[in-house]
Amino acid sequence: MPIVNKIKRYLASPQGQRTRAKAQRMARDPRTQAKARRLLSRFRGGGGGAGRRY
């Protein structure tokens, strides 16, 4: 079974609905948004730190 179908089945289940609701709540939280922005900036090379080694 393709992975996309498995994900769709999971999200349609009661447990998947709870997981989706939790993810939506977390996405609205300003602290979670700040964490995501920091993580993305690190991947994009804007996080300061030690820099790239290549």
Summarize the entry for a quick read.
Helix content is 74%, strand content 0%. The protein has three helices and no strands.
Secondary structure elements and pairings:
Layout: H1 3-12, H2 14-28, H3 30-44
Biggest sheet layout: none
- Percentage beta strand: under 5%
The rounded distance between the terminal residues' Cα atoms is 40 Å
Quick one: overall form? flat
Number of strands: 0
Q: Give helix % range.
A: over 70%
Description:
Helix content is 74%, strand content 0%. With 54 residues, it is mainly alpha-helical.
Labels describing this entry:
54 residues, flat, mainly alpha, 3 helices
